Amino acid sequence: MSERGSPLRHQRRRFAVALIALFLLAVSFLVIYAAAFSTFKSSELERAQGRAEFYRTTLESALDRLEHLPFILGQDPAVVRGLQDPESRFALNRRLADFAARANAEALYVMDLDGLTIAASNYSEPVNFLGENYSFRPYFQTAKNGQRGKFFAIGATTKRPGFFVAEPVRDSTDNIIGVIALKIELDELVAAWRASGEKILITNLDTIVVLASQPDWQYRTLAPPSEERLLQIRQMRQFGQEPLAPLDWERLENDEVALAGERHIRVRVPVTSQPWQLHFIVSTAGLQERALFVVFLAAISVALLAIMFIFWRSERLRRALDASHQDRKRLLREIEDRKATEKALAKTQNELEKSSRMAALGQLAASVTHELGQPLSAMRNYIAIEEMNAAQKPESLATRLSGLVRRMENITRDLRFFAQPKQHQKTPFDVAKAIENAVGLTRHDLQARQIEMALNLPTPAPQILGDGARFEQVLVNLLRNAMSAVDDVSAPKIEIGWAPAGDNIAIYVADNGHGLKGQQIEELQEPFRTDKPSGEGMGLGLAISASIVKEHAGELFAVDNEQGGATFTILLPPISKDKGQSGQ
Ligand code: ADP
């Protein structure tokens, strides 16, 4: 697989997966549609069955309601007499009209054996049956043969459809002398069907629609009868001049028919009193709509699910991103911490090295000062004796030696100051006292050099926990440095004092000397860093001072003054008044 081909193939695969998913979705929707449609259809079928039964009952009761009336009237002596005696026919007409009106029948009429109507309930209407011959009607034939004849037909005289029931009329010797017939109209029934909005049609054995809820279906055929049969029907004049055209009707599978191209569910029930079939039909359009609605709901559910899934995935992605963000942040923080720790470690190591170097130097200094101390004081004594002897001689050897000894003493003083301290007991000492002592120790030199000295000691002075004597050494060293710095100044001035600085106190030594010349305190306190000529200083003073200040939990700073000169400041915690110990 080439490098360039890989994403293309990936894309193709994704496209194929999407296509398959789409196909499966379409198939699922089809299945859902089919299932919903068949469910709706079976419930609709059940309903249709019920409706069909109902309509059949109403039809049968309409047909059967007056079925026995011709039989009963056939026994009526007035009817028999009417057939035998033409004189009594007028009275019979009225009698039939009365019965028809009471029974709500369209017509009641009596025919002789030739089929000629001799009396009719509608005798007084302009279109009546009197004098008409109905021998061609099957019901007449049946009744003449001694049975009940039933027939549906379009009236030959009135041109109105109706249901005919006929019975034979017998004389006293039980001979058939005529036929009495009843015509029932079914208009009201059909009107009720139409009003219901439902679709009903009744077919006879020839599949001719005899009754229908839709007027244009009536007298149409579902399956056209043969030519021969059509001829017979015409002879019976059952449907008058109706052309008996076929209805646009096609039987489909699964209880369905197509009527004028529209699919319908069809329920068919037989009518008991007649060789008829009742067809109840319902369009499937509603069912299709309902099934489509179910598919629509399913599609919406799928879409909702998809949206939820996408939302859930993006939420998960966002959370994962968040988590990785947090991890990155934590990692960065850890790196920072580590860097800081490494830095602190390096600093500590540095300080450790420094302090061990200082410790070694201290030991060395201690032994040198100890060894030199005695010979030096012996030399000073000898020189003092010499000087007394040669008092009057200026620039004597003794005087020069004395200068050399002083210089050597300066050196040892520095060294002593630097010597490793013994284990000091920490005790509280007064800041003002320490400052005054340091000034006292240097007063001689200050006066000799005519340096103006200012003391700033506000009361009450705080106390510090530590070694007072060593702390005084620091102050003495700072004062001596200041004295050196103001050496070449016309009006030399030094100020020493203390001031509160937040929770700490600041002890400062300020001068108007040559200043720090751009050097930082870190550089100045490097051991052996000095601008003094050999024998004047070893460059150890500030290094030692800084370490002593540190022993007292303090820190040493140095800055140039704006008006010239420098200020050295020791910042350190006083003993807190309530606890009686170091505030730190
Ligand atoms: P030393 O006094 O032996 O030179 P220090 O460590 O005490 O050693 O001082 C180091 C250097 O710091 C001095 O040589 C000097 O250059 C500088 N210094 C110290 N105090 C002052 C000050 N008050 N004004 C200017 N420079 C100073």
UniProtKB/TrEMBL annotation:
How does the record classify its membrane topology? Multi-pass membrane protein
Q: Which Pfam families match?
A: dCache_1 (PF02743), HATPase_c (PF02518), HisKA (PF00512)
Q: Where is the Histidine kinase domain?
A: 367-576
Annotated coiled-coil positions are 314-358
Q: PROSITE patterns from the xrefs?
A: HIS_KIN
Tell me the GO molecular function terms: ATP binding; phosphorelay sensor kinase activity
Q: Where does this one sit in the cell?
A: Cell membrane
Q: Name one GO cellular component term.
A: plasma membrane
Q: Specify where it is mainly localized.
A: membrane
The catalytic activity of this protein is classed by the Enzyme Commission as: 2.7.13.3
Could you name the domain of life of the organism this protein comes from? Answer: Bacteria
Q: Which Gene3D superfamilies match?
A: 1.10.287.130, 6.10.250.3020, Histidine kinase-like ATPase, C-terminal domain, PAS domain
Keywords for the protein's UniProt record, in alphabetical order: ATP-binding, Cell membrane, Coiled coil, Kinase, Membrane, Nucleotide-binding, Phosphoprotein, Transferase, Transmembrane, Transmembrane helix, Two-component regulatory system
Cross-referenced SMART domains, in alphabetical order? HATPase_c (SM00387), HisKA (SM00388)
Q: Which residues cross the membrane?
A: 291-312
Write out the catalysed reaction: ATP + protein L-histidine = ADP + protein N-phospho-L-histidine
Would the keyword rRNA processing be found if you checked this record's keyword annotation?
Answer: no
What protein does this entry describe?
A: histidine kinase
Q: Source species, please? A: Maritalea myrionectae
Lineage summary: Bacteria, Pseudomonadati, Pseudomonadota, Alphaproteobacteria, Hyphomicrobiales
